[in-house]
Amino acid sequence: MAGHVLLAVVLCAPGPMGLVLGCVAWSQGADWAWIPLVAGLACSLPVPFIARTTARRLFPRITRRDTAKEADAVPYGYGDDTFVLRAPGSPKARPGARLARADVLEAALVRYEPEGEATFTSYPGTYTPNEFTPLVRLRLRVRGDTEVPGGAPDFEVTEEWRVPSVCLSAVTAGRLAVLVDPPGHQAPGKVTPLWPRSALLAGTRTSRVIDLEGRLTDVTRFTGRQLRQMRISEDVGGVVMAGDTIDLRRLDADTAARYSAVAAWARTSPEERAPVTEPGEQSRWIVDSLPGAPAAFGSVGRRWSRRGGVLVRGRFLRMSPTHDFQDHGPVLDTLVRIQPADGTPPFDAARRLTVPMNYLAVLHRTRDVVLYAAPNGGSYVVDWPRTCLLAGTAEATVVAPEGREISLAGRTDAIWALMNLLASHGLTNPTRVLDLRQSRMRAVAGPAMDAIDARP
What we know:
The chain is an alpha+beta fold. It is 29% helix and 24% strand. The strands form four sheets. Strands 1, 2, 4, 12, 13, 14, 15 and 16 form an eight-stranded mixed β-sheet that branches. A five-stranded antiparallel β-sheet has the order 6-5-3-7-8. A three-stranded mixed β-sheet has the order 10-9-11, with no helix packed on it. The longest helix has 16 residues, at 253-268. It is globular and about 85 Å long. The two termini are 45 Å apart. The relative contact order is 0.12. The model is unreliable at 1-12 and 49-56 (pLDDT under 50).
């Protein structure tokens, strides 16, 4: 904090200089001494506020003061599985363009090279500056129009596209919503990914519909129904979602009737919910090429551990882009639900956080987040290395006392139990590999193996 105060003093240097000049003039009896005194005082008043704002930005501690206000809520509430993702808008469709699903067959990061000259970089007026938007080469299989006899067949295309960081999970999941231009235009057959709708189709953003009778239906990852709803939305110029919900009672009669017809189709032609991740994930795994926090079982401060500090879990309920960026990820307005360790009811906190890009690329899998709580339970800080390990940005591995390697891929309960075991014993493990053969791990080797065996 002292460093931020010093920085604020430098930024407001005319204030302290004015105070010094005014004091000297006052001591000499000058009649005009009050002028630099008043000016210096006015310029110095912002110093503590600037210091506090800068410190809060660089070290985003979450407290009860960040509890979400009523204005942050959505009309239908945030369930534990709700996730609302605000993404930069997509380009308008050309007349006659077809909205289709595209499967991501291969993906490779081509370029992501921010200048990195400043801790934070702001781009007023745009949410997706090229400097902070990864360029990704994608090989897509665009699905044909099977609803029309003799409709367009499937075809493949390979191209490089800028992918907004908040929509990277759609690439990892393997499902995109795209616009396909009709033949005869200046760019016939051009494919344009619709990134906000891709995040919806991938299941990163949850989706619910309230019908005209008030019944709520979860349509997340029911891709056939979602595509039909997206086409209706495209035809009518857009349908606003309240959080993650479309309420047909709030739409005009014609649009509501078209949505109701889609619901009737879904009842007569039931489809299976699409998988969280399409097969062949390894061929489109760009997570290792993206910047972010390295996944690890995490570090433990001795003082924090001795005083009773604990780890807690939370879950992101909402993310919205801002105009600020850091090299390793965008600065997002988030809403996170935190479950305190003392068993008190969870609370929702609204906080602006820098979210690592490698975590954003697996957001379709989980929105869970690990936080370390202050010993008094009054504040929380996101622990990104532990969060990334729990999310699966890298595979957690345990080396058993006899030397056997145990993969914990997908076993979040076992990973979480090991994190808490290490934290309770004040043991730091700054990598994704936990080697129980080390002498300092002897005290936890037995309980660690028990935790693994009890949580398959």
